[in-house]
Amino acid sequence: MFKIFRQIRYKLMSENKISRYLKYAVGEIILVVIGILIALQINNWNEARKDINLKNNYLNQLLNDLENDTRAINFQINRITRNMADYENYLEELEAPNLPIDSILNHLKKINFTFQSANFNMQTFNVLESTGDLRLFDETLRNNLMALNTAQLSFKETQNTNFGLYGDISKDIYLIFKNDYLKEMTTQKLLYQNLESNHQLPNEIIKLNHALRFKNFSQRNMIMLLNNILNQTEELIALIKETPGLNH
Predict the structure, then answer these.
(1) CA dihedral for 59, 60, 61, 65, sign (positive or negative)
(2) Whole-prediction pTM
(3) Helical pair 203-241 and 18-94, crossing angle rounded to 10 deg
(4) At 198, is the pLDDT very low, low, confident or very high (cuts 50, 70, 90)?
(5) Distance, CA of 126 to CA of 51 (rounded, Å)
(6) Residues 93, 163: contact at Cβ < 8 Å?
(7) What is the per-residue pLDDT for 240?
(8) Would 170 disulfide with which of 30, 66, 157, 211, CB 3.0-4.6 Å?
(9) Are the C-beta atoms of 61 and 124 separated by less than 8 Å?
(10) Could you read off the pLDDT of 57-97 as tens digits, one per residue?
């Protein structure tokens, strides 16, 4: 096509038809500009289509992450709730008068001393943040994602702090049931009337009860934080599912 244009220009110049040549040159420039604009528009359409596909891929990944999180959070909430119920039952048993040490130990064995923790699927959000692809989302969705991520990071920080403190308080817990002298003690020597009479118990039991109190307190707080994160997660899932054109 450019060869044809050149031939026409040469012909007009050789025939000394300057005015017609100028008109033709202007027309040729306009055609070139129109061609460039069309090419740019096509390129913009292609880029927009790529962004839409990329955005939908991210949304589906986020949806999968968040739905897995809801199941994991609910599981942990139920697990922590059961552990707290076991602890409350233990406290009720301790209220019995003249409770022998071996009975205390039997009740303690029903309690899970493991500090329950929770983790979240943050990989997709981290990729969005590191690549700058959060720009693909509207402001509402973007703000909700960042708010959830902030809540998750805050929870993990609190969880790690509490776990460290619990570890310091309960470092001897797993040795308690291996302590033979506790099993051999005369059951009537030491009684546990209530939580205020810790001074009557062996140091090991006192330490253990301090650890359990701290664990119960911190995990009660964890449930509150987890419920808040669960609500944010469910709201975000609903928001993603309302995204126009999303296939999931």
Answers:
(1) positive
(2) 0.70
(3) 150
(4) very low
(5) 18
(6) no
(7) 92
(8) 211
(9) yes
(10) 999 999 999 999 999 999 999 999 998 998 898 888 877 77
pLDDT band at 174 (very low <50, low <70, confident <90, very high): low
* Angle, CA of 229, 223 and 217, to the nearest 5°: 140
Place of tokens 């099993």: 183
Both tokens of 131, joined, read 């690549």
